[in-house]
Design a protein that fits this description.
The protein is mostly helical and 413 residues long. It contains 14 helices and two strands.
């Protein structure tokens, strides 16, 4: 049996506590996108193929998955602050590995450690955000988490692209920036008020996800939307910089950064704009936008139109953001309170599996099919998945879920 006690001292005000842990979430995702503009350069200089490049990217998601399954609840046992300090310290080491990387083996090591550390940081920081929100507002906490994650991804790729293109020592300076920001957050975390400390034996064992039978239809619907949106997110981060340089007919790293920012940045802003939508309504509109955006992406790649590709990336990003927001709310409002942690763990397993597995498959397909054809095929699959998710969301509503949506929306108001 474990005993929960309040932390002995409050060192920062609650709004500052909340802002700090929200910043950790955003910066962890910022750091994950920082290497994106450099992947093509690494591949050219060190002579590795597209399948290896996508494996370097995917090992990050596998690291996040491993941490979620193994120590996802560690902060419940030892407190939020120790886990956050350990995660930030590991992220600092991973960033140093990127700075001194001399071969693809260094990249695998850096990305693997970054994934493990990010999984620990996201789990502990996400829980701490719920603990430390000044009004205890779970809906607003989820919105801040989602918007911060998406904007962190977009900003990480965009700012890194700018530094790689314009600043001296492009393979080091982007990581120096991340290192400094992580060090600042590490210093702040030392003063963090840990809301709950657990006195218990630490148990590091796989925590297999479970979904109650009563909510499996909702879980399947939410998972379908996540599979389509997160798989495209993985492809954009791993391969869109290379595709953008072809479509824009340029060697500038800014083209790749702009496409990632157009997708991920719009995803964050769309959540802000449409945060009052009920869960299934958000999934309906998000899935339609995602399907439309990917149809535009397929058309842009076929027509070799850079402008259409950028515009389609904006629409895709809006669908990604709104659809994911709806899926998270559908799961969080459907899951029984006593099983919410297990259900959310299962949900994020689907998320990060969707991020890594399609990216690996696409990387294996590129040498045979080419980059543009691979994007067209995967984009077409996502169009079908997006439309299927939209139909599922609409049918659930037509079958009597409109009232439930209103109840869920009222809970979030």
């Amino acid at each position: 049996m474990s005993v929960s006690v309040l932390a002995p001292a409050r060192r920062l005000s609650s709004p500052l506590d909340f802002a700090l842990v929200a910043g950790i979430v955003s910066l962890a995702l910022f750091a994950s996108a920082t290497p994106t503009p450099l992947y093509a350069d690494y591949a050219a200089d060190w002579g590795f193929s597209t399948p290896v490049l996508t494996a370097v990217y995917a090992v990050y998601a596998i690291g996040v998955l491993s941490t979620l399954l193994l120590i996802g609840r560690l902060s419940d046992q030892v407190g939020r602050r120790p886990v956050l300090l350990g995660a930030l310290g590991a992220l600092l080491v991973a960033i140093v590995l990127f700075m001194v990387a001399q071969s693809v083996a260094w990249l695998f090591a850096a990305r693997a450690l970054q994934g493990l550390a990010t999984g620990a940081a996201l789990g502990a920081a996400g829980a701490a955000m719920l603990d430390l929100h000044p009004r205890g507002d779970a809906t607003q906490t989820g919105l801040v988490n989602g918007v911060g994650s998406a904007l962190g991804l977009g900003a990480g790729a965009a700012i890194s692209s700018l530094l790689v293109e314009e600043a001296p020592d492009p393979r080091v300076l982007p990581f120096v920036l991340v290192f400094v920001l992580l060090a600042v957050l590490l210093a702040g975390t030392l003063a963090l008020r840990d809301p709950v400390q657990r006195i218990a034996a630490v148990r590091l064992r796989p925590q297999w996800p479970a979904v109650p039978r009563s909510i499996r239809p909702q879980f399947v619907l939410a998972s379908l939307g996540v599979i389509s949106s997160w798989s495209i997110g993985g492809l954009y981060l791993a391969l869109s910089p290379s595709l953008a340089t072809q479509l824009f007919d340029t060697h500038s790293h800014l083209a790749g950064g702009a496409t990632v920012l157009a997708m991920a940045g719009t995803g964050g802003l769309a959540q802000l704009a449409f945060h009052r939508l009920a869960p299934r309504t958000a999934m309906w509109w998000g899935s339609l936008l995602l399907a439309a955006g990917m149809a535009g992406t397929v058309a842009a790649v076929s027509a070799e139109s850079a402008g259409l590709f950028l515009a389609a990336s904006v629409v895709t990003g809006a669908g990604f953001g709104v659809g994911f927001m709806g899926a998270v709310r559908l799961i969080s409002t459907s899951a029984p309170l006593e099983q919410r942690a297990a259900v959310m763990s299962a949900f994020y397993v689907v998320c990060y599996s969707s991020l890594s597995v399609p990216t690996l498959i696409a990387g294996l397909a590129v040498p045979e099919l080419g980059l543009e054809k691979t994007f067209r095929i995967f984009g077409s699959i996502v169009v079908v998945l997006g439309l299927a998710t939209a139909v599922g969301a609409r049918l659930r509503s037509a079958g009597g879920s409109r009232l439930q949506d209103r109840v869920e929306q009222a809970r979030e108001a």
